[in-house]
Amino acid sequence: MKFTAQSQNDLEPAASYLIKLLKERPVVAFYGAMGVGKTTFIKVICKLLSIRDTVNSPSFAIINEYSTDALDIIYHFDLYRMKTPEELFDIGGDEYFYSGNICLVEWPEKAESFLPENRINVFIEEQSDTSRIIKFELL
Fold first, then answer.
1. Which of 47, 77, 85, 90 is the most exposed, fewest CB within 10 Å of its CB?
2. pLDDT tens for residues 54-77?
3. What percentage of the chain has pLDDT greater than the value 90?
4. Which string of b and e fits 38-67 if b means at least 16 CB within 10 Å?
5. pTM of the model as a whole
6. pLDDT above 90: residue 125
7. CB of 102 within 8 A of CB of 118?
């Protein structure tokens, strides 16, 4: 599936589509260049999931934990600052990924070998007109 977003306001249809897939594949890997809007897209997803917390990129903490109104837990990873894939294993990444909770992972290429095979890959690309193409791949 592919969506085009001209602005942040156009992200909800893509986020809604993704949310429908999360029951069978709760781990989502977000690919895209720096500044393409991965965190912005995750904020829209969290808004639609009724997150009660402030959603920010966990750049320094590597992982943030959010609660929904229904008291579900969502994990948000930002692996950009990791130096080795093993760092994810050291913080218990595998326990998070196989917990059954939603895991949203920015910069997954930093530790792809530790990500579950049964996941959703999201590719965000900026176009020359500054719109974004959002593509989904189910593994």
1. 90
2. 898 887 788 999 999 888 999 999
3. 76
4. bbbbbbbbbeebebeeebebbeeebbbebe
5. 0.94
6. yes
7. no
- What is the chain's length? 139
Cite the DSSP H helix spans in 22-135: 38-48, 86-90, 93-97
Domain boundaries, the chain: 2-138
Residues 28 and 124: beta-carbon distance below 8 Å? no
CB 31 within 8 A of CB 124: yes
Please report the beta strands in the chain, taking only residues with DSSP state E, as ranges in sequence order: 2-5, 27-31, 63-67, 73-78, 102-106, 120-126, 132-138
Q: Is the dihedral of CA 96, 101, 106, 110 positive or negative?
A: positive
Q: Compute the distance between CA of residue 93 and CA of residue 96 in angstroms, rounded to an integer.
A: 5
Token representation of residue 103: 């895991």
Taking each helix axis from N to C end, the angle separating 12-21 and 38-48, rounded to the nearest 10 degrees, works out to 70
